[in-house]
Design brief:
- With 405 residues, this protein is of the alpha+beta class.
- It has a single domain, classed as Orthogonal Bundle (Cytochrome p450), CATH 1.10.630.
- A 5-stranded mixed β-sheet has the order 2-3-8-5-4. Strands 1-7-6 form a 3-stranded mixed β-sheet.
- The longest helix is centred in the first third of the chain and has 26 residues.
- It binds protoporphyrin IX containing FE (HEM).
- The site of protoporphyrin IX containing FE has 26 residues, from α5, α7, α11, α12 and α16.
Length: 405
């Protein structure tokens, strides 16, 4: 160990089941006792301070994304998310055209608005008291993602099933054979659907991810990489916007002051989005592995160590935000780390902002009059690697159906 550096303590009091239920008090204690700690149940050093998470995220030469024996590799293949530059950069560039802000504004926002109309009608049909997550948030964002990727031969239900089973595979630390079987089944279904779509998109130029990718003049991505990057995008592009819709709806319905602010000034929907992902980061933890002996926040970390950068925790660090557990759309949340800050910074950020802040939330609050939390059914929450509401029952007095209906 290098002189002058602290030894990271073992935090054997941290249990994954408790993290899943409510990670915030555990993270608070870790940040105050030791923001770099070895957590045996996670098999990782958990990094919980804002400064530590940021420093590791922006230094890929020391903190590699190419983690050895990552379960994500087995579930989805070797996508750009688990590569370092220059290999990562080549694939990332090819993924950008359909997700960049101009394309989102010009093409996708309208598509998202049509989908919001359609899935809000379906939610209204399900009736006051039904679950917002399954009734609107999940099918709405799954249909958006289906269109963005260009899966003309799949349904939103396919996207939901694929996404969940692949994520379950990537987190299958107990090595449950049933979880592997379901992930493999989805992986095979995606490969088959992709094969058909590669044919379909040739000669039909469009704005979808697959369409841009397949007609690129300067780079032909190998099939294996297309497959793994599509699986990673399905695993990573669905539950996060879904969970932000749930978290922001819950937060606004829990504070009449915050809700009044945004209803009076619709320009604040963007602030609602940013504060929601600061408050509950949908991707709570991202893995990294050290390439050399190094340090973070003054703690020694050996070469080859597996780390968990805990974004959920960093976003509530008191050294950056006052009263961080409070949801406050006036605080200025932009420094949050929810999209990452390094070379892997989220490619879908503009699509996520558009479907949630420009379209989904304004439509929900304008069409469901007297919207409130169901007093007879509690919302449920879970997760620390990914976190969001599991169920969110809502009630309303009157619903306005879309003009399409
Ligand atoms: C609020 C919603 C979202 C959040 C909070 C989020 C968060 C993140 C984070 C933290 C990363 C970096 C992970 C790491 O470094 O290991 C990431 C990467 C990525 N995200 Fe998102 N994401 C969101 C929505 C989306 C959507 C809707 C899409 C696609 C339509 C998407 C596509 C991607 C891709 C392709 C990457 C990999 C980028 C790279 O490796 O260079 N994300 N996202």
């Amino acid at each position: 160990m290098t002189a002058g550096l602290l030894e990271a303590p073992t935090a054997d009091w941290v249990h994954l089941a408790d993290l899943y239920q409510n990670p915030f008090p555990i993270f608070e204690r870790l940040r105050s006792e030791s923001p770099v700690a070895w957590v045996p149940e996670a098999g990782r050093y958990l990094i919980t301070s804002y400064s530590g998470v940021l420093a590791a995220d922006v230094d890929q030469t020391t903190f590699s994304a190419n983690e050895k024996k990552s379960l994500m590799l087995r579930a989805m293949g070797h996508s750009m998310l688990r590569k370092d530059d220059p290999d990562h950069q080549v694939e990332r560039r090819a993924w950008q055209p359909s997700l960049k802000p101009g394309t989102v504004k010009k093409v996708w926002k309208q598509k998202f608005a049509e989908n919001a109309d359609r899935y809000l009608d379906a939610y209204i049909d399900a009736g006051s008291g039904s679950d917002f997550m399954q009734g609107f948030a999940a099918p709405f964002v799954a249909e958006n993602l289906r269109a963005l990727i260009g899966f003309e031969n799949a349904s939103e239900a396919d996207l939901q099933r694929w996404s969940q089973t692949l994520i379950d595979g990537a987190g299958n630390y107990p090595d449950d054979p049933d979880v592997w079987a379901k992930a493999k089944q989805s992986s095979d279904e995606i490969d088959a659907a992709l094969e058909e779509m590669i044919q379909w998109h040739s000669g039909r130029p469009g704005d979808s991810l697959l369409s841009y990718l397949l007609r690129s003049a300067d780079y032909q991505m190998p099939l294996e990489s297309i497959r793994s990057n599509i699986k990673m995008t399905i695993g990573g592009g669905l539950n996060e916007p879904r969970d932000v819709l749930g978290v922001s709806t819950l937060a606004l319905l829990s504070s009449s002051k915050q809700l009044e602010l945004v209803l009076r000034d619709p320009k604040l929907w963007g602030a609602v989005f940013e504060e929601s992902i600061r408050w509950v980061a949908p991707i709570g933890m991202v893995p990294r592995q050290t390439v050399v002996d190094t340090e973070l926040d003054g703690y020694f970390i050996p070469r080859g160590a597996k780390l968990g950068l805990c974004i959920l925790s960093a976003n509530r660090d008191r050294s950056v935000w006052s009263d961080p557990d409070r949801f406050d759309i006036e605080r200025g949340s932009e420094a949050h780390l929810a999209f990452g800050k390094g070379v892997h910074v989220c490619l879908g950020a503009w699509a996520a902002r558009s479907q949630v802040a420009d379209v989904g939330l304004p439509a929900l609050f304008s069409r469901l009059k007297g919207l409130r939390l169901d007093p007879n059914q509690e919302a449920t929450h879970g997760g620390w690697v990914f976190r969001g509401p599991l169920s969110l029952p809502l009630v309303w007095d009157k619903a306005v159906r879309s003009e399409l209906a």
